[in-house]
From TrEMBL, chain B:
Belongs to the ATPase A chain family. It is a multi-pass membrane protein. Component of the ATP synthase complex composed at least of ATP5F1A/subunit alpha, ATP5F1B/subunit beta, ATP5MC1/subunit c (homooctomer), MT-ATP6/subunit a, MT-ATP8/subunit 8, ATP5ME/subunit e, ATP5MF/subunit f, ATP5MG/subunit g, ATP5MK/subunit k, ATP5MJ/subunit j, ATP5F1C/subunit gamma, ATP5F1D/subunit delta, ATP5F1E/subunit epsilon, ATP5PF/subunit F6, ATP5PB/subunit b, ATP5PD/subunit d, ATP5PO/subunit OSCP. The chain crosses the membrane at residues 12-31, 67-88, 100-117, 137-158, 170-198, 204-222. This is ATP synthase subunit a. GO terms for molecular function: proton transmembrane transporter activity. It catalyses: H(+)(in) = H(+)(out). GO terms for biological process: proton motive force-driven ATP synthesis.
Amino acid sequence: MASVVPLKEKKLLEVKLGELPSWILMRDFTPSGIAGAFQRGYYRYYNKYVNVKKGSIAGLSMVLAAYVFLNYCRSYKELKHERLRKYH
Amino acid sequence: MNENLFTSFTTPVILGLPLVTLIVLFPSLLFPTSNRLVNNRFVTLQQWMLQLVSKQMMSIHNSKGQTWTLMLMSLILFIGSTNLLGLLPHSFTPTTQLSMNLGMAIPLWAGAVITGFRNKTKASLAHFLPQGTPTPLIPMLVIIETISLFIQPMALAVRLTANITAGHLLIHLIGGATLALMSISTTTALITFTILILLTILEFAVAMIQAYVFTLLVSLYLHDNT
């Protein structure tokens, strides 16, 4: 099925569900590609929440909240023994 | 309470890969650089704070000592941010590991001492003998001064490790005690909770003070030797 725009240049929200696997496989998975993805993501967040005229505490707090959440996921294995349950 | 109180201090490893590298590198994300004259609030605040700290800390040095400004400022930022991030729940504090603190203390101290020995050999050797000691005491005093010199990096590292580890342990213990006391007697639990609040405030202060002390001492050793 020929699309008007080639699959490679579509953004994620414009990709149809059936085309999703091929879209994912077409992404750039080289080290420089992955580094570019991280850099793009960082600057997207930075320019939206921090690098604005009246930045608030929310820009920093969201990062710290994500950090706390990731650390929780990392230590879940030890933490699940401390839940208040009768049988662990 | 963990089956072992120290499980929160183990180095995080995920599937055998050292996650600790990422955790050590994380604070660098919180200090964005900017080449502009007028920046956003976040960067402006950080630059203001950095200017305040660097003026206060580097004003005592001569021009040779002030070449260390970048090193000392990065040091205080790193230790301060790592300690403060460690106060978040479930996070891992790299400065609780003695290995890392030794890795910071020994090269910095050695750099300062060796600079002193290379450039001002007589003055550096003269540090081993305080002024006006009676002659019979000289050999013993030289030995004591040598020992006190070599203990400086150990003291730097152990001071930081012990302070941060002890604070975290206390928070764990008192938090666990509050939780356990909740079902037994609510008033005691409230008292323990107040203690926990005060302790947390103390820990915030300690986090920043320890960074300051570490950097200040390195700067002092530098001042002696330049």
